[in-house]
């Protein structure tokens, strides 16, 4: 499977819609802006309905601080989609987790928790990810022609303060 960054397909839209979270005073993470760059599978016929995030810190250049995988469909969908998924794997695919083959840092787990508490719970943001997935233009195998529309405004940012 080949992954390509969303910004390589929809540069202007990615610049407007890539999410970042500003962290200040959180004991588990250094103060900074954390950008969640989206990467998607471009394999024809794949309908994985997943995104890989490479998380960067504004003050740290291009170093990847966490690689997170996120699937927005139900465990039943992933069990049917993947011939290798048992119940446990399907549950993992239907949520957010650290991508075992991607770069990680000592802060990866804390960044994953940040994603789960702020972004994964935001229905409009998840709808935006689905839209970006279909923007990639890959021929999907899904029988559904539904293209969700996101309700977030361009440039939306979330600030996270001390817990």
Brief descriptors of the model:
single chain, 163 residues, alpha+beta, 7-stranded mixed sheet, 5 helices, 7 strands, globular, disordered C terminus
Quick synopsis:
With 163 residues, the chain is of the alpha+beta class. It has five helices and seven strands. The protein has one domain.
Task: Explain this structure.
With 163 residues, the protein is α+β, with helices and mostly antiparallel strands. The chain has one domain. 28% of the residues lie in helices and 25% in strands. The chain contains five helices and seven strands; from the N terminus they run βαββββααβααβ. The chain has helices at 11-17, 75-81, 87-93, 108-119, 123-135, and strands at 3-5, 19-23, 32-41, 50-57, 64-71, 96-98, 158-160. Strands 1, 2, 3, 4, 5, 6 and 7 form a seven-stranded mixed beta sheet that branches. A hairpin with an 8-residue loop joins strand 2 and strand 3. The radius of gyration is 16 Å and the shape is globular. Mean pLDDT is 86; it is low at 142-163.
């Amino acid at each position: 499977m080949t992954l390509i960054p969303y910004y390589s397909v929809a540069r202007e839209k990615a610049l407007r819609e890539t999410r970042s979270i500003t962290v200040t005073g959180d004991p588990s993470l250094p103060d900074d802006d954390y950008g969640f760059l989206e990467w998607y599978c471009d394999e024809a016929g794949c309908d994985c309905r997943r995104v890989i995030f490479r998380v960067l810190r504004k003050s740290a250049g291009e170093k990847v601080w966490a690689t997170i995988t996120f699937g927005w469909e139900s465990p039943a969908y992933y069990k049917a989609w993947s011939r290798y998924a048992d119940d446990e794997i399907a549950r993992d695919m239907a949520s957010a987790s650290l991508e075992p083959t991607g770069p990680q840092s000592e802060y990866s787990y804390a960044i994953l928790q940040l994603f789960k508490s702020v972004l994964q719970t935001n229905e409009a943001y998840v709808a935006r990810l689905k839209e970006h997935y279909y923007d990639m233009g890959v021929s999907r195998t899904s029988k559904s022609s539904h293209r969700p529309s996101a309700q977030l405004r361009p440039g939306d940012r979330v600030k996270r303060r001390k817990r």
